Amino acid sequence: MTAVIKRGLRQAGLAVFAAALMLAGPLGAPASAQAETPTEFLQEFSNTALTQLTGDDLSQAEREARFGTLLEEGFDVPAVSQFILARFWRSASEQERADFIEVFKDYLAQRFLPLFGGARDAELRFGGSQPLQGRDDLFEVPVTFSPPGGGEPVRTIWRVRGQSADFKILDVRAEGVSLAVTLRDEYSSVIRQQGSVTGLVQELRRLIDSGQVRPVNQQG
User: How far is Cα 211 from Cα 2, in angstroms, rounded to an integer?
Assistant: First the structure.
């Protein structure tokens, strides 16, 4: 079971790193308060992410608390959780759903936060948003970033839902790899092995408590 989840982390590595660069927003108010388009919304995220989460005077506890708040402000966490659990969401109890959402946020914090330290000099280029499926509330926004140190540019696509001043992120794809789809496939495999959503929650909690969700070069 551990191997299954770790394999998913490696497969989604690019998408995870792309998400880590931009997963933040202004403290104290929704990040999208002034954004009129999905592109502006993501630009606000990128403009504030590093200053909010990489200050030298921040304790780890404060950093994690900020991350959790910003995650809820910028992402539609219940919708993402429902997508990831797929058919298992429908059969899960309300308590199992709540427990999964809580452990999923902790998983994201342990996986993403260590990556911010290496993202200070990344260069981001934003494209215009494109509506999907003839809808006026679902968009894809291309974002290309060049990693610090002159690495190869990484092309990402962000899926955003909402309208002016009320945008939420649903997924990010990097080089064709969807973070949400990858996690859905890997988590579904664990649920089938464990027999329930509660089993997945317990396995994720074990990995988090033992520090195994951190990026490879951050693990002790």
Answer: 12
Q: Return the half-sphere exposure (C-beta side, CA atoms, 13 A cut-off) of residue 211.
A: 6
Distance of CA 184 to the CA centre of its chain: 13
Distances (CA, A) of 162 to 7, 90, 134: 32, 24, 14
pTM for this entry: 0.81
Whether residue 138 contacts residue 117, with contact meaning beta carbons closer than 8 Å, is answered with: no
Question: In 3D, which of 132, 124, 136 has the Cα closest to residue 37?
Answer: 136
Range 2-218: architecture per CATH: Roll (3.10)
Three-state SS for 131? strand
Q: List the structure tokens of 127.
A: 């494209």
Q: How far apart, in whole angstroms, are the C-alpha atoms of residue 210 and residue 116? A: 21
Grouping H, G, I as helix, E, B as strand and the rest as coil, residue 155 is strand
Strand partners, 162: 167
Which string of b and e fits 33-68 if b means at least 16 CB within 10 Å? Answer: eebebbbbbbbbbbebbbebbbeeeeeeeebbebbb
Is residue 49 within 8 Å of 22, Cβ to Cβ? yes
> For the segment 177-201, what is each residue's pLDDT rounded down to a tens digit?
888 998 999 899 999 999 999 999 9
In a 13 Å sphere around the CA of 212, the CA atoms on its Cβ side amount to 15
Q: Distance between CA atoms of 22 and 94, rounded to whole angstroms?
A: 30
